[in-house]
Design a protein that fits this description.
209 residues, alpha/beta, 10% strand, single chain, 5 strands, 7 helices
């Protein structure tokens, strides 16, 4: 046999054994981390409900960083509004969509942006508060298709939220539709499945703050 060809085969075998050993080692570490209780870097359920809890009636509410409580009511759809789904009047219906600013987090019932717009527009209009805390425009589009469209708004106004520019591990769009590129798909898969990925992130980044 040609010595050069034999050398190439030997190198190929060593490379193959090396890759197999690396794969087994990674799998072993992954299983060990799972047994140890290490969670993946990202879990959809960590976000909680996509909407604020439904059917709350004048509930005193206070977030972990809030200085004071406020009175909050929601309907069966988790929206902070008294506008019914059924459109039984000839009034123009306006839906306001946005994040906590539109929702009115920290503000008592009757003091939201929607309440102010309703007061200005008058009796010929119905203003629907379809804001939700923490929403991005991706989640607004999702909520419109899931809920808001059923209210048959004549006009929908979207307040662009600050959450579109948040630095996140997995974006709302990627949660709903998956990664847009191969690299993004790999990142999302690692974030949702690999404990090694999470362990390495814990070493590289300080999450104490």
């Amino acid at each position: 046999m040609n010595p050069r060809r034999q050398q190439k085969r030997s190198v190929g075998r060593r490379a193959g054994f090396g890759l197999a050993f690396a794969a087994v080692s990674l799998l072993t570490v992954e299983l060990a981390l799972r047994i140890a209780g290490v969670r993946p870097a990202y879990r959809v359920e960590d976000l909680g409900q996509w909407r604020v809890s439904s059917n709350m009636h004048a509930r005193s509410t206070k977030g972990p960083r809030d200085e004071h409580a406020f009175i909050l009511s929601t309907n069966a759809d988790g929206l902070r509004t008294e506008v019914p789904r059924a459109k039984a009047t000839t009034r123009t219906r306006v839906a306001l969509m946005g994040d906590s600013t539109v929702f009115g987090w920290g503000v008592d019932d009757g003091g939201t942006v929607a309440d102010g717009v309703q007061a200005v527009l008058g009796a010929d209009y119905e203003v629907l508060n379809a804001g939700q805390p923490g929403y991005s425009t991706t989640m607004m589009a999702w909520l419109y298709g899931e809920v808001v469209n059923a209210y048959q708004p004549d006009l929908t106004i979207v307040f662009i939220p600050m959450h579109d520019t948040n630095l996140v591990l997995v974006s709302d769009r990627e949660v709903l539709k998956g990664g847009a590129t191969t690299i993004a798909k790999v990142r999302v898969t690692l974030a949702q499945e690999s404990r090694i990925y999470q362990a390495l992130r814990g070493v590289v980044f300080d999450f104490t703050d």
